[in-house]
Amino acid sequence: MKMVRVIVIFLAMFFVNAVSAGVDDTVWKNELKTQFFADRSISETENIIAIEAPYRAEDAALVPIRITSKINQTNDKYIKKITLIVDKNPTPFAAEFNFTPLSGKADVAMRLRINSYSYVRAIAEMNDGQLIMAKKFVKASGGCSAPIGADLDAAMKRLGRMKFKLSGTAQSNEPNLAQLLISHPNITGMQMDQVTRFIRPAYYVEEVKVTFDGQPVLTAKTDIAISADPNFRFYFVPQSSGDLRAEVSDTDGNTFSQTYRVEP
Amino acid sequence: MKCIWIVSLGLCLGLFAVQCQAKTKETLEVQKIAPGLYFHFGHHELPNRDNHGAIANIGFVVGKECVAVLDSGGNPQQGLLLKNTIEKITDVPICYVINSHVHPDHIFGNRSFKGRGVQFIGHKNLARAMQARGGFYLQRSEEQLGVKLAPKDIVLPDIEVTDSLTLDLGHRLLTVTAHGSAHTDNDLSVLDKNSQTLWLSDLLFVEHLPVIDGSLKGWLRELKALSALKVRRVVPGHGPVMGDWPAALKPQEDYLTMLLKEVRSMIRQGKFIEQAIAEVGQMATGRWALFDAFHKKNITLVFAELEWED
């Protein structure tokens, strides 16, 4: 009988541990939510946005994340902003994406550094101020202090290079998917130089502005959780031919730009 | 009565064993693959708290005046055992420790070789790579290897190799070659002319899935040049010593070429990294040890490299 009680206690402890290790929301509940959204209420309804992420990250320094919206961007109802947070990262704030009705769809995909087993959460803010959250748990470790990149010489050589890629021929008056590639080492500032004991200063892309014919499509504030060579996929709606333009600035005050002619 | 005898005998043997251990230093199991060339086989495992990161092939070459260590091991203890093994086999002093590249399973025995007359040799990019990654390796050492490593375990090279370097061990010449970005951006290979043995370390994987942490295109380029060398045998960083060169390269070359072709074709079709990770090269599973541990990471790195090629 005593044995049974011991087993029951043991099992109970095991489950408590398993739960706290698996679905750890405490950092969010106790700190992050208040820090980023004060006392505003956030719903977790599933009809506005969804987030896709691998359950196990193959490379913690480069984890593909995709946020998809379930509504079209219209002047009456649209997603104004999506904030991306990685609970357990040393800097939980990963990025903030601002959209307009001209974005067509408030979808955005990027690659993240994820430092440990953590929730990745996307909080959408509607044009009327409503907040809706989607989240995914990712098993990763060491993304933020992980090696900067495999081939550092090659990465530094192409620093500042940018490319736009469109999927197929552009279609007018409907959302078109575009990809922006930015070559930048995005050094996290956490890779301690073990010999000199200095922490390298962070050096990363902090702002990305994409416009179509001068009208904002996507404006992002980004932080060190964005992987080296930042890569964003997003939508835009061209009414007719025009220029897709990206302006990027980093923490050292460098700016880079790239223009791509769109002929629907 | 009989029983007492057996117990006493047991006790004696036990005491003898203890004494024995105190006298003889613990060593590492090594094979002599040619006169004066020794090799310790690393098993195909991920580094963990049981093997403490001692998973790579390591070894040494003995000349008339000097011994050169070919990778020091995955932790200070393995380094110490390798040192004991060398001292048991020869009285020739250790002059050089060659670090083939920055990965922990090849460099973390370094500390045990530090001392007078010992010079550490690495690629010109090795110090930079040790500085960039060292903190990360040390931070995770306890959790991942069950060994607490400290800053003194990062031993920077005394001699940096830019192109190539000849070491004279005394009637034995070693050619140390620095390669362009391949397995990592700091790979060395070592040619022992006496035995016609090419020590490739992780430039060659046999049985164990090749791991890309430098440049896929660069690696294929370096392998092409290496495959032209006429040697009697090659030693991979993981897997058995191979006699038939360059035929021994075939499986690795096929795998890397497949990655190049398939990932490049997906990028040209406008497909994304998620699709490549899910789809590319799953057919190669079963042909390699540790496929699931490294294949998708390889695709990720290859995709990130190739999307900048045009």
Concise account of the structure shown:
Chain A is mainly beta. Chain A is 15% helix and 38% strand.
Structure commentary:
- The complex is a heterodimer of chains A (264) and B (310).
- Mean pLDDT of chain A is 86; it is low at 6-21.
- Chain A is 15% helix and 38% strand.
- In chain A, a hairpin with a 4-residue loop joins strand 14 (242-250) and strand 15.
- With 264 residues, chain A is mainly beta.
- Chain A contains three helices and 15 strands.
- Helix content of chain B is 37%, strand content 20%.
- Chain B is of the alpha/beta class.
- In chain B, helix 5 (216-227) packs antiparallel against helix 6.
- In chain B, the strands form two sheets. A seven-stranded mixed sheet of chain B has the order 1-2-3-4-5-6-7, with no helix packed on it.
How is the secondary structure organized here?
The complex is a heterodimer of chains A (264) and B (310).
Chain A: H1 2-22, H2 26-37, E1 42-43, E2 49-52, E3 63-69, E4 79-86, E5 93-99, E6 108-112, E7 118-126, E8 131-138, H3 152-157, E9 162-166, E10 176-182, E11 205-212, E12 215-222, E13 231-236, E14 242-250, E15 255-262
Parallel strand pairs in A: 1-8
Antiparallel strand pairs in A: 2-3, 3-6, 4-5, 4-7, 5-12, 6-13, 7-8, 9-10, 10-13, 11-12, 11-14, 14-15
Chain B: H1 2-23, E1 31-34, E2 37-40, E3 58-62, E4 67-70, H2 76-89, E5 94-98, H3 104-107, E6 119-123, H4 126-145, E7 159-161, E8 164-168, E9 173-178, E10 188-192, E11 197-205, H5 216-227, E12 233-238, H6 250-268, H7 273-279, H8 291-306
